[in-house]
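Subject: Protein entry, chain in single-letter code together with its fold tokens

Category: Structural biology, sequence-to-fold work with a learned token vocabulary.

Notation: Tokens come from a learned vocabulary of local backbone shapes, not from coordinates.

Start of record: The labelled sequence and token lines come straight after this line.
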Amino acid sequence: MWGIRFFISSLLIVIYLFAAGQQAGTGNGVAGKRRGTGGQTARQGRAKSAASHPSGKEEEEQLKPAWIRCTHAENYFSSDPMDQVGDSTVVGTSKLRDLYELFEEELGGRQERAKAARPKWEPPKTKLDEDPDDSSSDSDCESDGEGSTCSSSSDSEVFDVIAEIKRKKAHPDRLHEELWYNDPGQMNDGPLCKCSAKARRTGIRHSIYPGEEPVKNCRPMNNNAGRLFHYRITVSPPTNFLTDRPTVIEYDDHEYLFEGFSLFSHTPLTNIPLCRVIRFNIDYTIHFIEEMAPENYCVRGLELFASYLFQDILELYDWNLTGPDFDSEASGCQRFHFMPRFVRFLPDGGKEVLSMHQVLLYLLRSSKPLVPEEEIADMLQWEELEWQKYAEECKGMIVTNPGMKPSSVRIDQLDREQFNPDVITFPIIVHFGIRPAQLSYAGDPQYQKLWKSYVKLRHLLANSPKVKQIDKQKLTQREEALQKIRQKNTMRREVTVELSSQGFWKTGIRSDVCQHAMMLPVLTHHIRYHQCLMHLDKLIGYVFKERCLLQLAMTHPSHHLNFGMNPDHARNSLSNCGIRQPKYGDRKVHHMYMRKKGINTLINIMSRLGQDDPSPSRINHNERLEFLGDAVVEFLTSVHLYYLFPSLEEGGLATYRTAIVQNQHLAMLAKKLELDRFMLYAHGPDLCRESDLRHAMANCFEALIGAVYLEGGLEEARQLFGRLLFNTGDLREVWLNYPPHPLQVQEPQTDRQLIETSPVLQKLTVFEDSIGVLFTHVRLLARAFTLRTVGFNHLTLGHNQRMEFLGDSIMQLVATEYLFIHFPDHHEGHLTLLRSSLVNNRTQAKVAEELGMQEFAITNDKTKRPVALRTKTLADLLESFIAALYIDKGLEYVHTFMNVCFFPRLKEFILNQDWNDPKSQLQQCCLTLRTEGKEPDIPLYKTLQTVGPSHARTYTVAVYFKGERIGCGKGPSIQQAEMGAAMDALEKYNFPQMAHQKRFIERKYRQELKEMRRERERQEKETDEAEEGGK
């Protein structure tokens, strides 16, 4: 029988997961509202992206079964139109009302009655219990911000974690010392929330979703089909949700297998992306698919079942579906209702869903003692085969002991051994559980400290040129000490719990129901959050099509979505009632794309070449978007200031820009959008201080601007930034509608007619021909090439310093956007390193020299002889040219120019590891050679010699490491001389880290390095031949 059931359940879930897998590319389901008795969907439609799902309707039809029906109503429901109230299609009869009252009496109130019958226990109070609000609000880190929290060191002084754990262990109703239970508002080691009273009134972390309003109560005795939107919930992949002992209900000589839950929502789930969550080290996707709703249910029956499963069995006390903003009288209806789906397949692709009243009847029938006291003697006399059969049927079953903590547990074994022949005892329930991390070696401070020292020593020995035997012994000793702690009985994660079966009742529910149920808090949080983001759309004035992009912009790096509620409650319930041995994926899934610390991680990520086609990033927080948004904000500010203040010099423009783009001001703009109410961040001390929160808000604002720029383009980002900068319409109009460049004002159409009379402009036409761009206003190009030493003239109306200010911001934006799109696995710091290798004086000067810009520089030298320009001057020329190109032709021309002249160099920078300057690289190599327990040695630079006049000096610098000179360099400035000394040291000194990096790159890109060297040799040969031909 179990084999057949397993086969059927496997087939059922595989078919539905296959369908769900097809739906994964859609990003959304379709909301439908059922009206009338025919079960037709009157409302359909969700916004679908044509790019992501070109054939949405066709694939969606494939997801639905050919037809659906419910099992017979059996006088529990009436579909007679004369009996209907409001917008229902089915109404409950008096027989159904009697069933509800029986269920509420037998099962609904059993838990509360059992608790009330037990003696009331007053736990010993801690200092935090005496006045929790004062303990946090009076703390040193209390802030005036509305979204501030407080969990500073003062809290840790009054709150003793060890005492709290002992208090929970001492509860007289505790089922077993190794089984952990849930209390409202509590984690295993203390209160869930240590925020101030003011902070608790806002924030997604407190389950307060902006824009939510109370929901009008459903009519309890009908199905409210006209106002509820129905979705079928599936999870993919099926790992850990496909069990060999599914929950099965037998009805009318058929077996109905549990396949998951139906979700009824009061609002259509439009523009809600799929929900993704990592659990058991596996990346799961929760799909919600619109489907014709089963008719035979009433809302009161759904609420009775939900209260029994989620409150009495799983004890999810902190899962709130109304919202803490509303008091008990005005809270209204639950935002979502859930119906368990017990189904069987029918011919021609149909499916039959078990009516809800049959589910309640099954739970009532199943509710009986696990081992009746009057049958113990008979059970002990059973043959071994008969007992084994009964014990096998009980495996995976959830049993409950009302009033105990926890109330319910999964049976993994049932043993009937009698240790005392004179006394008959109840059979023993064996449960294999997991001890909470706080109480195992994973949460032990001594273990954590020892583990960190072990990893540190292992890393040091791996980079040490000579490893001593005593150091090897230290490493072995620490490894053995770690293993010893892990093997302690009091520290092991896995525990075996033995309980007397006395007082336990069968529930009829197995672990597969609990496994699916524990995904629902994650899904409802995801839905509610995306619905509240629609309120943010109104504040922004822009509606995102890619909803995940907006969520990403609001996600702080500290945020991790795993349970959607009190994490300890979810872990305890999964351990007590979930499947016994879940299959775990690769642990790297948590940090594969998130880890950014450590030199090995740095080398690994920075060795990756860019993607040819734009690729989505798997880094799920907003630091990359903040990196992009920072460049967009700086660009917009620079452009508007440049045009609005045509006579202001570069220094004044930079001062104004700094005032606008500084974090303090951006945090004020974020406050206008109320971003602190929408931000996702950890419910802990990360942002407890006002300064930290404001900094995070500024970063979130930049990420939002970056997201708007990515999806809506530069104009949308410009309009949003302008609306937030100025409250009055007049100032906003001035900011947004800036005048043209003064040179464009003088000649609105074009000034190329002046070329005939100007030798300077005539010379610049040669440069235009070389780059293939004809300027509409060629005087802009002349202005870009006019050095600062040239006085005011009517041709250019000034020098190029202002243009250099603008060109730098333009290059930053274009380079940032390219890196963001083509390097999806790089974090913000890695992207910054790559951008620095592109947008720096050395690279810019090299490009300017290759284009021959120095030949067209306009100077005050009357001899007209070629002038040798310094690196900084050449770089300024290029930035000024970029600004002139943008003013005359627009941003698209700048993109093309950098695609040709800059971005191809990235491959060479990565293969040669030129993304890091020599001084930083030398310091990293020196730090890898540090000795444990001592301050790390760092390279020291000393100026040995200074020769030449003040305007043309040459500096000689040496670098020392551990008292030994390891390199020497010369340069026109101390900084360049230090760079030369560091480069010399890297080439001469035998650093293990440098050797490792070279081997790593050589193995990874052997072919690319060969081609690059071959190309370099070819270019050098062509250069030599050209020089010989010139001679």
Remarks:
- The domain at 742-915 is CATH 1.10.1520.10 (Ribonuclease iii, N-terminal Endonuclease Domain; Chain A).
